[in-house]
Every structure is written in C-alpha cells, then in structure tokens.
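Format notes (please read before filing issues)

Several people have asked whether sequences and structure tokens are stored in separate files. They are not. Every record keeps both together, in the order shown below: the sequence lines, then the token lines. Line labels are part of the format and must not be stripped during preprocessing.
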Amino acid sequence: MRERLDIGLLPALELAPVEWRLSEGLVGYEEALATMEERAAAIAAGTAAELAWLLEHPPLYTAGTSAQPSDLVEARFPVHHTGRGGQFTYHGPGQRVAYLMLDLRQRGTDVRRYVATLEEWMIRALLAFNVRGERREDRIGVWVRRPDKGGGREDKIAAIGIRLKRWVTLHGVALNVEPELAHFSGIVPCGVSGERYGVTSLVDLGVPVTLPEVDMVLRREFEALFGPTRV
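Then the structure lines:
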C-alpha cells in the first residue's frame, strides 16, 4: 500500500546543504532542461552541491516517457517531449515548479521512497494552508476531494514527474497555486480522464495565497524531509 511507504530522504552527514534557488520571471523550458542536465552531471561527478530550483514556466505542455499521442487534445502551446516519467502535463504562470537535483547515492537508492517523499512534501505544504492533499494507490501525485462538485469527485493539485541519471534526480513537482486552469483542457493531464477527475489550485479552492507565501512553506517542509538548505 502506497500509504505505508517510508518517507524522508535525509542526506549523508558529510553532504553539504542543498542549494535553494528561486528564479524571478518566466524560465524557458529548454533553458531549464539544459541547466538541470548540467547540474546533475556536476553532482554525479562530485563537483557541485545538490540543487532545489523553484521557478515558473511560460505556458507549455510537456510529454513524459509514457505520454500517449491521443492525450494531446489541442496543442494550444508548445509541446516539449522530455525524458521524465509520466504522461502529459501543463506548466504556466501561477504554478510553482520545483526541480530537484539530489544525489540518491548519498540518500538511499529507493525510487519509490523518493516519489512518496515528494508527495509528502506537497501534502505537508498544502496542510499549512488548511488544504488536505492525499496520495492515491493507483495514481502518482497529490489529490483533493471535491464534494462540492458531487460524490466521488476529486481534483489534482500537484503533479510529479522524475528522471534519474547516475542516481541523481532531475525534474520534480508542480504545485498549482493560481494557474489558468482552462489551459489544462488541451491535454488529458497525466493520462487521468473521466468525469470524476479534474484539476484545481489553491486559489480555486478559495485560498488567497501568493507564490512567495507558498515558497516559504515549501522550503520549511522540504528541510523537514530532505535536510538543510542554503541560498
């Protein structure tokens, strides 16, 4: 059962604090990929510290390694095919993307635990805003129940997609703070379809929160699960 997975990936004692980087403005996807690849290679070589990079993208769709062409309903924005796991997702302004380059050789080479810890990170951050996020047995990511929409309805609020190179992580999580939710209708998000399932955000749930407020909570909860950070 995924609810019983171990969580937390504290570093080896000799590992330096994770660099915590926050980019202002919108970061192009190709630029982000190049930065991740370069940093991950340096971490694997032992010449750079781990990195947690928070940013926003301009509107775009990404297709993971399991993406099905039929899940691209309408290519309203550029589509980027990437090496992360998962299917189609949307990125855009108002969504906090967190790319993590962590050395699992120093934290334990347990991919399931890493994914569960990413989910736990989002769940704890949401709880700080009185939103109950939940993981699902058959779906990666974080979901919230929507009884206001009808029985059994639930919406996804945080997506997760990762990649490993030499046991260094790439990609990460995307938390919906205040994106334009209509932009998700150009795809089948993460391959999950059906009337029961939708997409939501903190602001859509009635939580008037800003990205800087979310960032402070994300850093606090990240350190509880992954260890200290430095700017």
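For reference, the curators noted about this record: The mean pLDDT is 94. Helices lie at 29-45, 111-127, 211-226.
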